[in-house]
Amino acid sequence: MTVFFDTDMNPSTGDPEFAGSEYAAQVLHGAALFRWSGSAMAEVPAPTLDYLFATERRSLRVSIHPNDIGGTRAFNFYLVSALEGQSATDVAPDGGAWSYSLVSEPLRLSVVGFATTKVARAGKPFGAIIDVGRDDTNDILDATGTRIRCSLKVGTRTVAAYQLSGIFTAGCEGRIPKKAKRQKLRMKISVKFGGLSISRTFAAKIR
Q1: Which of 26, 36, 147, 153 is the most exposed, fewest CB within 10 Å of its CB?
Q2: What is the pLDDT of residues 18-35, one digit of tens each?
Q3: How far apart, in whole angstroms, are the C-alpha atoms of residue 140 and residue 129?
């Protein structure tokens, strides 16, 4: 995958073969940044360039600080993908380029996914998972910088609940006592990030 950046938003400057792009960030066996020298795209240092494949989401996240692409706060961009060793490529968007402007907005958290064990059964484990998004960058939070808290109650009794974590998913799991049939279960997951917190609560009757 290669992301081409027209950082001065002028297609008549930059690499004429790539819609006037001044920079290109490529992910192959690693991540590399290239800059238009006036005659060719040449690799340049990019200390903040990073990438993450999320196989469970079939997604690729590429991140870079504006200082590594000339300090720009707005640019046009498009994507080119290809399979290694093959000449066929796919370009997005189908025509022209997308435009992006850096906007500073307050951090907000939102629940974008939540799921629990289908049935709460006495003597069996019960778990729940939550995906939390940050609205300022439209990213799903990963484990970096997040704190997860779990609580599980059966009737009036607090039951031990254990934290589960993946790259993008936070969760809790606990075992329901064997003699808890027909009691009410209540589980709460809280995620804290950047001074904010968000939680989701689930209640069910134990079978």
Answers
A1: 147
A2: 889 999 999 988 899 999
A3: 14
Residue 59 backbone zone (phi > 0: left; psi -120 to 50: alpha; other: beta): beta
Q: Tell me the three state secondary structure of residue 16.
A: helix
From CA 152, how far away is CA 49, in angstroms rounded? Answer: 41
Query: In order of start, what are the domains of the chain with their CATH numbers?
Result: 2-101 (no CATH), 109-205 (2.60.40.10)
SS (H, E, C) 45-109: CCCCCEEEEECCCCEEEEECCHHHHCCCCEEEEEEEEECCCCCCEEEECCCCCEEEECCCCCCCE
> Chain-wide mean pLDDT for the chain?
90
pLDDT tens, 49-76? 998 877 766 778 888 999 999 999 999 9
User: What local confidence, expressed as pLDDT, does residue 167 receive?
Assistant: 63
Tokens found for residue 43: 């690799």
Q: Are 97 and 77 in contact (CB under 8 A)?
A: yes
**Secondary element (H or E) of residue 13:** none
